[in-house]
Amino acid sequence: MSVIDILTRVDAICKKYEKYDVERLNGDNVAGDDAFARLYASVDLDVESALQKAETASQEKNRAAVVALNAEIRRTKARLLEEVPKLQRLALKKVKGLSKEELSTRNDLVLALPDRIQSIPDGSTNGAKATGSWTASASRTEIRFDSTSDGRFESEYFQQTEESNQFRQEYEMRKMKQDQGLDIISEGLDTLQNMAHDMNEELDRQVPLMDEIDSKVDKATSDLKNTNVRLKETVNQLRSSRNFCIDIILLYIILGIAAYLYNVLKK
Amino acid sequence: MATQDPDKLMAKADNLTKLSFTRWNADWRNATVLYEQAAVGYRFKKENEKAKEAFEKASKGQEMISSPWDAAKHMESAAALAKELGHWNEVSDFYRKASELYRECGRSQPASDALGKGASALEDTNPDEAVQLYIEACEILEEDGKEQMAFDLYRAVTSINVKLERYTDAATFLLRWGVAADKCNAVNSQCKAYLSAIIVYLYMHDFQQAQKCYNDCSQVGSFLSSDQGRCTSKLLSAYEESDVEEIKRLAQSSPITHLDHVIIRIARKLPTGDLKELKKEEDKAEEQTLDENDLT
């Protein structure tokens, strides 16, 4: 049996015995035709997950990760806040099988929701005041390099500004060193530019000379080729076999005469 | 044949060339060959005087058989020997003659090279003559459209003039150098030449001239927008404000350090004299113009 067959069979069996699925029935009943309950359940779930993220964010060491998590939480919060008015409308609708008390509880639940959502920590709480002061002092330190963190020395932030002081000092030292290095580099580049300009002019000077050399050498090579061809013809003429044989015979005769004379003289 | 005594070769050659009863036509061809061999022999033996004479005669012989190239070459050798002997007027004569012979061949580069060699030989002993030779060399090249090669000659002229403290001449030649550079589109050299000229004028403590020179050179767009042009304008404004520190700082800056070392030396000595005097001169000049306006 192939996988697809198995899957279709399982689906058919499940459908047949759906009515015995207690969990799902319960879940459906709770949500079921009740749009309010469904929506409320999903919002609840989101709030729970946001709270979990907030917890991980507060324990996170890496600042960048913290920032990312906080941003996510804020987005979820905004989305949930949008859903709250929908929930309110649904809460007021009458659904069959629901008692009056449950209706009122639903209303209360909906009202309590916005507060719950807002209370999810997303790194920008502890009062908008404190946030304001942190950003304000940050901008002040950007403008005036000499001032340390004047402003409130709130206990949490005192430590951070000490760190940032050190960081800033280091940053300024490094910047100075970089500036010195860059000055040296710029001097070197100036010299390089000057040399490059001079080389450019020199090469411009050489170009016509090279052209002259080129044409002269071409002429010389063609002369050489002509001469070689003529030489070849002449040598071939000289080496024609008749002359060669005559040369050998004459050579032998001379050797013979020389040998004869040698013999005569030896005696 | 080369191992023969050069004296004998010379005697033989003289015999061939001297016209006498038995000889109606001088045999220059063979004589020239003998003269050349004699000259080489003398040079080997380090008898410079005789070698020089032999080269002269060989050159004349080559002229007679109408090969000016070889004649010029022999003349140059004779001139080099004359330099070693210290006959300075002969040096300039020989080199001039060699240059003319090269021009006969239609080769301007060797002609100017010959004059250049003569000038450098005479730099120490007869600088005026040397300057003259350099100028002639530059003119030969410029006629032939080969200004690129003239740069080195201009540089040499400038250094001689500065050494002789003839600053106006030096500045004039620098401007001529600028013209030559312009013709062959060597922008960098041109700007450097102009900057050098202005520095020379400032060294002469002639601020008016320097200003005028700068205004003239600014007509050339490429100078105005170049590093050298900017440096010049800064230098002149520093002079106007009598800011000695600024002048010294600019003299150490990069456009000036890339100039010829002669110019760098005088730039380091800037500012010469009192800057306040310059201001007084300027004011006087301005007052004069005001008077003229009053009259009209």
Automatic annotation (TrEMBL), chain A:
Topological type in the membrane: Single-pass membrane protein
An example GO biological process term is: intracellular protein transport
Q: Name one GO cellular component term.
A: endomembrane system
Q: What would you give as a GO molecular function for this chain, any one?
A: SNAP receptor activity
Q: What is its main location?
A: membrane
Q: Which InterPro entries match?
A: Syntaxin (IPR045242), Syntaxin/epimorphin_CS (IPR006012), T_SNARE_dom (IPR000727)
Keyword list (alphabetical) reads: Coiled coil, Membrane, Protein transport, Transmembrane, Transmembrane helix, Transport
- Family in the record: Belongs to the syntaxin family.
The record describes its quaternary structure and partners as: Part of the t-SNARE complex.
This chain's function reads:
Vesicle trafficking protein that functions in the secretory pathway.
This protein's name: t-SNARE coiled-coil homology domain-containing protein
